[in-house]
Amino acid sequence: MGKKVLITGGTGVIGKRLTELLLEKNYDVAYLSRKKKDIKSVQVFEWDIAKGYIEENALENTDFLIHLAGAGVADERWTEERKKTIISSRTDSILLIAQKLKEKNIKPAAFISASGSSYYGEDTGDIRHTESSPPGNDFLSHVTIEWEKAAGAVAKLGVRTVILRTGIVLSMEGGAIPKMASPARFGFGAPLGSGKQWIPWIHIDDICQMYIDAMEKETWNGAYNAVASPPVTNEELTKQICKTLDKPQFLPNVPAFALRMVFGEMANVVLGSSYLVNKRIAEETDFQYKYPDLSEALKEVFSK
């Protein structure tokens, strides 16, 4: 039998592709899920975070833990109740895992947790952020700060902990790219707001390989900006999507005020600028990007 990798949020965009790559490498993959499901080649254990319950034996013999679970930031308007859900879905789940690991005296080789590029702020203009840059003080920053603080509960158990601060993941399975590509396919592609806001990005296969490297290589520890380099402006990303789809881009920018009228505070997700530098990846690891070029990355994504 291969080493066991237990994943939360395994049915999401990253989780699905990561599972495929792990199975190819002969890992045993298991999920923690709110409901029992039949998933080929994956053992599914049930958990109930509100009740503090994790199915018996779920954590037993776990070599690596990967935490991807969390309510979608851009799925619903940010009511006060939704904001609480966005935070608690990320933090309470980790704290429960830490509690059970401690109770059962289980110590995985590594714990890898997702985090967000918004750690540094929802809108930070042209400021270049490395992993040592200070956090922001808005809602999305608060989400990621609490997320990473919760991951610290596992680190305190003596488990090597890695945090991957991720921007937009290029995939047609979900996330921002299908939403941006949909109007572009019909010739309605247009930059959002000023179009000058920076977007940190990474191809789905590269972020999944980062999770695997973070698992397998003991030198990985702490937080990393898990993005390609350099980032791209919203205007350039829109242009590249239209170019890849061989569609014209002639519409004016969608004004910021219109987006705020429709989405409220949640419009910050697409209007904010975030320039991340993958300093630790570049200087402290031997990670090799499969898709370092945006145009090539988009071609591969849309070829599917």
From TrEMBL:
It comes from the Bacteria. InterPro entries: DUF1731, Epimerase_deHydtase, NAD(P)-bd_dom_sf, SDR39U1. Transmembrane segments: none annotated. Residues 5-225 form the NAD-dependent epimerase/dehydratase domain. Residues 254-300 form the DUF1731 domain. Pfam families: DUF1731, Epimerase. Belongs to the NAD(P)-dependent epimerase/dehydratase family. SDR39U1 subfamily. This is TIGR01777 family protein. It comes from Dyadobacter flavalbus.
